[in-house]
Amino acid sequence: MSIAVSIVEDDAQVRASLVKLIDSSPGFRCVSHHASAELALQEIPKSKSEVVLMDINLPGINGVECVRRLKPQLPATQIIMLTVYQNTEHIFNALAAGATGYMLKQTPPAELLAAIKEVHAGGSPMSSHIARKIVSSFQQFSPAPTAEAESLSPREAEVLDLLAKGFLYKEIAESMKISYATVHTHIRHVYEKLHVRSRTEAVAKHLGQTQPRRGIPTAV
């Protein structure tokens, strides 16, 4: 079964390129594309989208607000912000609104497709640069070992440490000389043992952050 993808992007050229990429890639299909949040809010609930690629800088209602309105209607639909914005406030606001991933528009096509697969499988894909920004926002806090963290195996702890440094799943696999599937298995176990549901939560716990700040969601 192919992954049903919707695109919300006001730049016609960028939108056309994304549609072409999705429709020309095995395992993916573009079920709708929209030039504004207003149109997306009307049409995406009818499209049975599994993953939405959402721009932030849209005319009228912006992408973050669109996510905030769309997510309650489609709780099972995963939303990836695809934007040029690297501002920490934009990132946290998007995640707090209900986005599950955050990728930059300059992301290579293969990595973007991998991110769509990852979010569809329950992950929280982020460009390495974005992940590092999130990590840096926690660095004023000292790590505090917990019983949950101590329950991790050495390999799981190593995976979590690389995840917290902003490594992509592929980069973790290469660094640890293990398969991509094994990385997914380790991360699933990490989430289960730390009682978290996303990369953001796992990194926060790893760095000793227990309370949300500046709009950082405790569940993404």
Give the structure's gist in a few sentences.
The protein is an alpha/beta fold and 220 residues long. 50% of the residues lie in helices and 12% in strands. Strands 2-1-3-4-5 form a 5-stranded parallel sheet, sandwiched between helices.
Q: What would you note in describing this structure?
A:
The chain has 220 residues and is an alpha/beta fold. It has a five-stranded parallel beta sheet, sandwiched between helices. It is built from eleven helices and five strands. The chain is globular. The protein folds into two domains: 3-125, 3-Layer(aba) Sandwich (Rossmann fold), CATH 3.40.50.2300; 135-206, Arc Repressor Mutant, subunit A.
Name some characteristics of this structure:
5 strands; 11 helices; globular; 220 residues; Arc Repressor Mutant, subunit A; disordered C terminus; alpha/beta
User: What is the averaged pLDDT score?
Assistant: 84
CATH class of the largest domain: Alpha Beta
Fraction of helical residues = 40-55%
Can you write the helix and strand succession as a string?
EHEHEHEHEHHHHHHH
Computed over alpha carbons, the radius of gyration is 17 Å
Chain oligomer state = single chain
Number of domains: 2
Tell me the CATH architecture of the largest domain. 3-Layer(aba) Sandwich
